[in-house]
Amino acid sequence: MARSFTPTAYEDLDSDRRPSLAAALVPVLAVVAFLGIGSALLGLDPHPPLLWSIAFVGAFGLWLGYDWDELFDGIANGLVMGLQAILIIFTIYGLIATWVSAGTIPSLMYYGLEVLSPTTFLPAAAVLAAVVAFAIGSSWTTVGTLGVAFVGIGAGLGVPAPMTVGAVLSGAYAGDKQSPLSDTTNLAAGVTNTDLYGHIRRMRTGTAIAFGLAVLGFAALGLRTSGAIPAGRIAEIQGGLTETYAITVVAFVPLVVTFGLALRGYAALPTLVAGVFAGAFTTILLQGTGFVAAWEVFMSGTAPESASETVNDLLATGGLTGSAWTITVVVAALSLGGILERTGVLAVIAHAFTSAVRSPGALVAGTGVSAIVINALTSQQYMSIVLPGVTLRNTYDEFGLDTDQLSRAVEAAGTPTGALFPWHAGAVFMASATGVPTLEYAPYYLFAFLSPLVLFVMAATGYTIDVGPLAAGAPAADEPAAATDDD
Questions:
Q1: Separation CA 439–CA 243 (nearest Å)
Q2: Looking at the DSSP assignment, which residues form a beta bridge with residue 401?
Q3: Could you read off the pLDDT of 170-196 as tens digits, one per residue?
Q4: Contact 46, 428 (CB under 8 A)
Q5: From its phi and psi, is residue 379 left (phi > 0), alpha (psi between -120 and 50) or beta?
Q6: Alpha-carbon distance values, 133 to 124, 146, 176 (Å)
Q7: Which of 128, 211, 225, 365 has the highest CB neighbour count under 10 A?
Q8: With contact defined as beta carbons under 8 Å apart, do 257 and 275 qualify?
Q9: Which DSSP letter does residue 248 get?
Q10: Burial readout 45-74 (b: 16 or more C-beta within 10 A, e: otherwise)
Q11: Angle at alpha carbon of residue 190, lines to 189 and 192, rounded to 5°
């Protein structure tokens, strides 16, 4: 479970320092402009635009009357929310390197090329990723291990890497959303005071529809790639793998250790650390690498020198030190999200939204939109769940909606969509782990579009939106909410 804090509610903001809605939109628009201009037009890495954004929002906070200590507290809160994600990124980078050197990922690639075809590969990758993510409760672990292997298998089958990553992410996030072991699933239930299994049951129909449509989409894409295997590609890759690694089922020991611990309910971070140790010792015992060399791989990564350039490119990793670029983006993004929260910008925007809600369906749909917007602004999925989850609990009660409607809305829209924004912690990790830039895999990450879309259709039609008695003073479904003063 991620460490958390209670976001500042609109009512708790100092009225003398609380921005109006118009003022709150200024830093939001500035962040969007900085990220758009810096990344899209100037071609910069995310770091400079994020720094510009932090400086602008910080100056905005000083203008409102906050001092540096208060702004720094906001940054610290943002980092606390994302601490587990930061540590997992560190660990997975080292884990991927040790699993490559142990022959785990090369063996997965070798045997996968034996049994899969271009036609079946994409839907199979999505389904397998969903099963694994459901079993272990972690989309990041699934992508960082099996996802890396699937990219290699897809390359051998002539399937474009962005399609492969889109399929893997779709399955990983769909399985993660339905897993009782998932941190985001537990977080969504916890911050909304919803029973965990009640939350999972409420999500089940929408997740099944969205993922089913995604699998059908990948099946259609698979038909387009049928017969596209370049002559000799599979033999070349398998030859390069056997030339460099001992290919055997024994190499799956790190995978068995990691997933076995996850299935027994151990937390993600110690489970991944156990996977690192299993990978390092498998490297020593199976691949004949020395003790020091095995741990140097953990630190510095792998650089295969087989006769196959494809193998060399696919299995080159950066190890623990290779995570620096990713970690620095994540730290900057989390800091930005924390300072936006501390200055009251997000609370004011959320308050304006709740004041405009007129029906239960609009409330559910608007909750989904707010989760997506917060994902983009704060760059981490925990905040996209916590902020609307805490802020909107009373509003759902006023409209006669159970808390599982709120928990379903924040997770259906918040959990899968973060990986669509290039500066988001999830997107930065996914792109770095798989080697495919966010904007390249995004069009094929079908579940990220379908999950919130299904939620919006359900909200519009009233399907599964069960309304109980309205709380006293709540607006009827066909009456506008009373206007409130935004100062």
A1: 34
A2: 467
A3: 999 999 888 877 778 877 887 788 888
A4: yes
A5: left
A6: 14, 10, 5
A7: 211
A8: yes
A9: S
A10: ebbebbebbbebbbebbeebebeeebbbeb
A11: 70
